[in-house]
């Protein structure tokens, strides 16, 4: 039996649809999953725009899509914790199997770079009807979160970035004078201030985690205040700063120096111009991936001087592992409760897979666009 799929082709340009043979169980740990919903993100659109075709040897196509929820339809004989009918979210990266990180379930920190990623590097993704993967890469979804679980992957990216930041900031276990605000406590952010750059899905989820920890959060966007991106942020009481022409001086005047900067715009000129705004002992996290080749001019002496004199840390964070998917599913329950079912409103557009050309076109008025293969 063949199934419908959307992705990139070796021989044709643009985004294309094609038929693929429906996959089957190959080993005892394999699980066959029917895709119910799959999310679209900047990486998909960028791969299409740049025709970045990382197709496995011997294959003609790569199926795009790396954010999904599906239902288990068949399990291999050695599958222990999943059964037919269970709802699952698949992770993205498949480790190199050589480095200590990958051998310890942390392929997001792979040190060889020989990993693969579903829907991105060498492996088929989820813009199709079925996929097979081992049980270890499938995270069960609690019943109450099934309707928004397609958002687990982008949230897991923010979970990883924030948890890296917490590891690093455990260099200041006291943080402020309130022991109840120390890192690891639920309200660890209460005396802190954060800046989120960009209010797309990753910026939104970064802000949601910061707000759950009671951090005073400001965000910069260039879209107007009536856009759904800005509205969702404001529903969590994050404060809007118009990003057009913003300077680091104007920003500090408005909000003071942030203890945490969460960069999710991928606009390098803006991102780098704001490097000097951090508070003493602050952390600046890069999660956005700039896709072009921009030349940026800045006062390097000022930047380095300030970073040294104020113990600044800059980190980059990519991908996420199973533990971050699990935390994401847990935190979604809290977000849903605290911010009045906000996750339902993060999904702004739903398309059937056959309308992929329309769905994948850039849409500045969207927050999260998804495909629905089967009604949940
Ligand atoms: C995905 C990550 C992935 C990265 C780079 C992002 O869109 O969410 O899981 O590691 O792209 O390929
Ligand atoms: Zn590795």
Give a structural overview.
This protein is an alpha/beta fold and 376 residues long. Helices cover 27% and strands 24% of the residues. The protein contains 11 helices and 19 strands. The strands form 4 sheets. Strands 3, 5, 6, 10, 11, 18 and 19 form a 7-stranded mixed sheet that branches. A 6-stranded parallel sheet has the order 14-13-12-15-16-17, with helices on one face. A 3-stranded antiparallel sheet has the order 2-1-4, with no helix packed on it. Strand 16, helix 8 and strand 17 form a beta-alpha-beta unit. The protein starts with a strand and ends with a strand. The model has no long low-confidence stretch (mean pLDDT 96). It binds beta-D-glucopyranose (BGC) and zinc ion. The site of beta-D-glucopyranose has 11 residues, from helix 3.
Features:
376 residues; seven-stranded mixed β-sheet; six-stranded parallel β-sheet; 11 helices; binds beta-D-glucopyranose; alpha/beta; binds zinc ion
Q: Give start-end ranges of low-pLDDT stretches.
A: none
Pairing-aware structural class of the strands and helices? alpha/beta
Helix content: 25-40%
Give me the number of helical elements: 11
- Gross geometry: globular
Mean pLDDT: 96
Associated small molecules: beta-D-glucopyranose, zinc ion
Strand content: 15-25%
Task: Report how far the terminal alpha carbons are from each other.
Answer: 24 Å
Q: What is the string of SSEs from the N terminus onward? A: EEEHEEEEHEEEEHEHEHEHEHEHEHHEHE
| Main sheet overview | 7 strands, mixed
